[in-house]
Amino acid sequence: MGAAVIRAIRNFNLENRAEREISRMKPSAAPRHPSTKNLLREQMSSHPEIKGEIARKDDKLLSLLKDVYVDSKDPVSFVQVKDAGTPQKPKEFRLPKDHHSDMMNVKNIPKGKISIVEALTLLNNHKLYPDTWTAEKIAEEYHLDQQDVNSLLKYFVTFEVKISPPEGKKAIQSK
Q: For the whole model, what pTM was predicted?
């Protein structure tokens, strides 16, 4: 409904506005520097044939221009040609390992990739039990490359929340 109202307002008096814009004076050239004006005036007065040469249309050039025909086609990109020639093999998928995937509507995950929840889970498992959750076991469990798992464990860590009591107050010991 709103689009129809906006379209009606936008198209109101369109022909008159277009006609007014077309009949408006066209912008003139930018003003020249005073020194350039003087040089141009001097050259025009000493060579009056230049003024006629500027205004004259060359029929030979116009006829050559009329004979030019340009046929333009977009070049075919290399990527499209490569994709068309090689058939893609179907991707292998695996089911998510956790029960949290129901919330995210994840039905299957490509092999060699993991979800955010799985990444946090495996990072936390490796942090808590590094002897049982080794890089080799994680790579085998989640169908990942060994090098990717090593980089993941080296460069990513889970957040650890530490709450320190304000200065001057004693911390309440948890039981």
A: 0.39
